[in-house]
Design brief:
Strand 6, helix 4 and strand 7 form a beta-alpha-beta unit. The protein is built from 7 helices and 7 strands. Helices cover about 55% and strands about 15% of the residues. The chain is globular, with a radius of gyration of 16 Å. The protein has one domain: Response regulator (Rossmann fold).
Length: about 160
C-alpha cells in the first residue's frame, strides 16, 4: 500500500493541486477542508503525513497541530502557509510540534522534498521511467507558478479588505 498524505486546507484549488502532485508520484492523497473534518479523519483513517494550512477556514491551524500531536505524536506534520515571511509563525509552528514548514510560494519540488524527509516516495513509482515524468514536472511547475501568482493576488486583495 502506498503512503497516504492528508492535505488539510480550506481552499479547494490548493488541495487539488497538491493532491495531484503527490498522486502523480505514487502517494495516496486526500483532503480535509476544516479542523473538524481533519480531527474526525484522524480516528477513522490511517495516513502517514499531514500537510496542514496555518489558517484553515478561518480557524487556527496551530491549535489543530497541537491537537493532532497530542492524539498521534509520531505523525509527521508539515505546516503550509500563504504568509510570505513570518518568523514568529515559523517559531510557533516548530514549538507546537510541527516537523516542517513551507510557504505556498516555495516550489512544488521543495514541498515534495520536505514530504520525502518523512515519507519516502513509493518505490514502484520512483523507479518508473523518467521520460514519462518530465512533461508532468514541466506542466506542474508552470501550473504552480500561475497558481502562486493568482493566490498572491487574492491574498493582497484580502489584506486590503480587512
Amino acid at each position: 500500500m502506498n503512503p497516504h498524505i492528508r492535505l488539510v486546507d480550506d481552499e479547494a484549488p490548493i488541495r487539488e493541486m497538491l493532491g495531484l502532485h503527490f498522486r502523480k508520484r505514487g502517494y495516496e492523497a486526500s483532503g480535509a477542508t476544516d479542523t473538524a473534518e481533519a480531527l474526525r479523519l484522524v480516528g477513522e483513517t490511517k495516513f502517514d503525513l499531514v500537510i496542514l494550512d496555518v489558517n484553515v477556514a478561518g480557524e487556527n491551524g496551530l491549535e489543530l497541530l497541537a491537537t493532532l500531536k497530542r492524539q498521534r505524536p509520531a505523525l509527521p506534520i508539515i505546516m503550509f502557509t500563504g504568509l510570505q515571511s513570518d518568523e514568529d509563525l515559523l517559531a510557533q509552528s516548530l514549538a507546537a510540534g510541527a516537523d516542517g514548514f513551507i510557504r505556498n510560494t516555495d516550489s512544488l519540488h521543495e514541498l515534495f522534498g520536505e514530504g520525502q524527509r518523512f515519507v519516502p516516495a513509493p518505490q514502484d513509482q520512483a523507479s518508473s521511467s523518467s521520460s514519462s515524468r518530465k512533461p508532468c514536472n514541466w506542466r506542474m511547475r508552470v501550473g504552480w507558478r500561475i497558481f502562486r501568482k493568482a493566490l498572491a493576488s487574492i491574498w493582497r486583495m484580502r489584506s486590503r479588505v480587512t
